[in-house]
TrEMBL record:
Its EC number is 1.1.3.-. GO terms for molecular function: oxidoreductase activity. Its cofactor is FAD. Keywords: FAD, Flavoprotein, Oxidoreductase. The keyword Transport does not apply. Pfam families: DAO. This is L-2-hydroxyglutarate oxidase. It comes from the Bacteria.
Length: 406
């Protein structure tokens, strides 16, 4: 029997996980991963909060709910088996008033529905048994929420791909993936070169570029990626120990993103962030420059203006933290007043590949589409890194087998 050829586009944690899963399930297969940068994991995978989300937020029955829970198990095992750091530091989601408390109770129910282990409601002073300096009327405690370095995990997966006989083509931006009439798939690089191997299957995991690659490859144009940056600040060392793990606000349905929170990092540093604001470029992490093509694309997308008009209050809230470090700190210290005089340093931003529908709604769940033998990840926001190994299982064992309704 002839060897089956698989192409995977994108060397972030999702593409790497898919390539690894293919090599595990089909040991004799020929798996080639294409990455446009000179190294893997240069985009969202190395610019995130590093949280292994336990599954507190996701609607029952959604892909996020299912793949996040399975992803936690797989990430934990992967870290143990590969001697990578995994710190189960726990998380509290804190309500500051009765309105938030009512929303928090709904979140507790979602966590129970998703079978998140050992979640518990805490009231008033009970919060201090977990986070001694945190105030609030109630909190949802998830002791198994953890932190990791997704960059380290991704780089270890890249090594594993090579060990298992796969190939990683760096500096190889893909322009298009095309189904041919003979059933084979052709990969054309942005240089114009047609890759010499004809593939049987391809999976695109292009993150911030996923809509463009999908469109160039003949898939549907929408949803479109609209980039939202998230700024972080790192607390100066003397303030780090006032918080033990992760402290989050209760999500407000009026706002599309979670809100500024305290996140412990796997290197022991404590961060606050990320906020969420429209980014002037899809892949610009210092916030200084802009990319005309990226801006033009969302400006001419009617969905963007529908989103913008509906989210003026959210934009106002977020812009306060974009333009003032003091406001940013104030958002966080509502939960830990002992840190109101803390000093911080800016850290690198992250940029979310957030898919947006033509009607201006943000796509909430993961979106994975199949077009013949080509599969596209069209939306994989948080908890996309937590879920990555489970997303890979789902794509290889269900989507590519025609068992999933996509
Ligand atoms: C601010 C922020 C905080 C987050 N926090 C968390 C968190 O705490 N926990 C969590 O689970 N998730 C979190 N996420 C989400 C998580 O980071 C993403 O879901 C995950 O990293 C997506 O991985 P990916 O491989 O799909 O995309 P990426 O990591 O962006 O990788 C895509 C890759 O494709 C490559 N590529 C793109 N186009 C092409 C092309 N044409 N040819 C070849 N290669 C191409 C890119 O160079 C890149 O390497 C966060 C995201 C952000 C932005």
């Amino acid at each position: 029997m002839s060897t089956v050829n698989y192409a995977v586009i994108g060397g972030g944690i999702n593409g790497l996980s898919v390539a690894r899963q293919l090599l595990i399930d089909y040991p004799g297969a020929n798996v080639t991963l294409f990455e446009k940068e000179s190294e893997v994991a240069q985009h969202q995978t190395s610019h995130n909060s590093g949280v292994v989300h336990a599954g507190l937020y996701y609607a029952k029955g959604s892909l996020k709910a299912r793949l996040c829970r399975r992803g936690v198990e797989l990430v934990r095992n992967y870290c143990t088996d590969n001697n990578l750091p995994y710190d189960q530091c726990g998380k509290v989601v804190v309500a500051l008033n009765e309105v938030e408390e009512a929303r928090l109770k709904k979140l507790y129910q979602i966590a129970l529905d998703n079978e998140v282990p050992n979640v518990k409601m805490l009231y008033g002073e009970e919060i201090k048994t977990v986070e001694p300096n945190c105030i609030g009327v109630a909190a949802l405690h998830s002791p198994e929420t953890a932190i990791v370095s997704y960059e380290k995990i991704a780089k270890r997966i890249a090594e594993e791909i090579i060990e298992r006989g796969g190939k990683i083509e760096l500096n190889s931006p893909v322009q298009s993936i095309k189904n041919n009439s003979d059933g084979k798939i052709t990969i054309t690089l942005q240089s114009g070169k047609v890759y010499p191997t004809q593939f049987d299957y391809a999976v695109s995991c292009a993150g911030l570029q996923s809509d463009r690659l999908a469109k160039n490859s003949g898939d549907v144009e929408t949803p479109k990626i609209v980039p939202f940056f998230g700024q972080y600040f790192v607390l100066d060392d003397q303030f780090t120990h006032d918080v033990k793990g992760l402290i989050y606000p209760v999500p407000d349905p009026k706002y599309p993103f979670l809100g500024v929170h305290f996140t412990k990092r796997i290197d022991g540093k404590m961060t606050i962030g990320p906020n969420a604001f429209l980014s002037k470029a899809r892949e610009n992490y210092d916030g200084k420059g802009f990319n005309f093509k990226d801006i033009k694309e969302f400006i001419f997308y009617p969905g963007f203006w529908r989103f913008a008009f509906r989210n003026i209050p959210a934009a106002m809230r977020e812009s306060k933290t974009v333009f003032s470090q003091k406001n940013f700190i104030n958002e966080a210290t509502k939960y830990v007043p002992s840190l109101s005089n803390m000093t911080v340093k800016p850290a690198t931003r992250g940029i979310r590949a957030q898919a947006m529908n033509p009607d201006g709604t943000l796509v909430d769940d993961f979106v994975i589409r199949r077009d013949g033998n080509i599969t596209h990840i069209r939306n994989a926001p948080s908890p996309g890194a937590t879920s990555s190994l489970a997303i890979a299982e789902y794509i290889v064992r269900e989507v590519m087998q025609g068992k999933a309704d996509v």
